[in-house]
Amino acid sequence: MTVQISFLGKSQLDTKTGYRTARYRFDDGSKIDTAFFGPALARKIGSERLIFLGTSGSMWDNLLEDQTTEDRLEEQRLALMDAVRQDSVTDDMLAPFAPLIGERIGCAVTLRVIAYGRTAGEQADILSTLAGAVGSEHETDVVLDVTHGLRHLPMIGLAAAYYLEHLQSVRVADIYYGALDLTRDGITPVLSLKGLLTVMDWVQALAAYDRDGYYDAIVPLLERAGVDANAVGHLRRAAFAERVFNHKMARTNLLPVRELIDQGLPGEAALFTAALGRRLAWANNAAHSARLAAIARERLQRGDHLRCAIAATVAFLVGMARPDERLSIYDTHEVIEADFRSGRRGNPDLRRDYERLKRLRNALAHGTPPKDNDSRRCLADDGRLRAALKQLIDRLLPERVLSS
Q: Is 85 helix (H, G, I), strand (E, B) or coil?
């Protein structure tokens, strides 16, 4: 189902139509002469439902005159005209006219009064009104038309599109803008602003990676951008490998992705090439322990104490591995730990710090009350736990700079 949302403004350039008539041209070359872009767009794309949003002073009377030819509901029309002049239009006043406009356009029509959006509260009210009007039916495609309306409403419309996609489980198929300011030789181009949503998706995906350390949110964006499926598969496998702390496997899969990034990403993804490259730069460094140590610090900064402790513990053991030892085998880690505890490898002065870190890791991983007083005190206070983990990481894992 395609639901179109159009805004209605207050312009009085023409006493009959409200807006001046423009010749709108679409990407396919077709042209439509109209004063109100919303109804014309609905006919063009075959919208099954059109939601008009306007303020209590928007030109509802002009819209009605433009879209209906019969003199039905004359008393209500006159009352609506007075309400427009007095900036006092309500939903109840508009309700009788929705079927009339719907008959002319050829789809179901909903007319809703929204706030002016002068304050954060009013802006939130607009989103709430919009969400309620759209609903959350599955397989609903929403098309936003931000051509008319108050000048700040297109920005609210963009926020609304993002809100609907992520909280209402609908898909924003496109955002249209009839760019009257770009009219040349009597032709007004119709612009698609859908790329702005993709940009916002990338910002959110990178923020999610910074928060969680997972690449999963980036994978569908690369697919949408048309990136080679083989490279996307490598990134998907790298995401899984990092979740299970197999950073050798992750690095192996990230190297071809790094090569692709160095060549440049297509479309809107190109805006984030450098940012994504920085986040994957660790793959250039073959030092397994350095990557784990960096993850431990990242997780500590994000308050992810469990992953911090796990990464720090493994990083310390891996840092003592010999070149011929296979770190992908669990027994290797046990051998390294046994050698460290017996004094056959590593710095014996760090033994107490390592044992303290491992007690904290076990307590966090198992969710059971620790037996020692030190761990109990740390797990009782966020600040104390952060300080303890930072102190242990600084002692056990002297910071190394990952190559970029």
A: helix
Last-in-domain residue among 254, 284, 314: 284
Rounded Cα distance between 300 and 344, Å, is: 30
Cα–Cα distance, 181 to 190 (Å, whole number): 11
Full-model pTM: 0.70
Place of tokens 């891996």: 318
Three-state DSSP at 156 gives helix
Q: In whole angstroms, give the CA distance from residue 129 to residue 143.
A: 16
Q: Which amino acid is at 312?
A: A
CA–CA dist 211, 213 (Å, integer): 6
Q: Which residues contact 171 (CB under 8 A, 6 or more apart)?
A: 140, 141, 142, 165
Asked if residue 388 and residue 293 are part of one domain, the reply reads: yes
Contacts of 148 (CB under 8 A, 6+ apart): 6, 7, 8, 9, 11, 19, 36, 37, 38
Task: Output the average pLDDT for the chain.
Answer: 87
Do 273 and 332 reside in the same domain of the chain? no
How far, rounded to the nearest angstrom, does the alpha carbon of residue 116 sit from its chain's CA centroid? 26
Which token pair is 63? 């819209």
- DSSP code of residue 283: G
Query: Which tens digits make up the pLDDT trace of 234-284?
Result: 999 988 888 887 777 888 898 888 888 888 888 888 888 888 888 887 777
Count CB atoms within 10 A of the CB of residue 403.
12
Which structural domain, as residue segments, surrounds residue 344?
A: 288-396
Contact assessment for residue 99 and residue 120, using Cβ atoms and an 8 Å cutoff? no
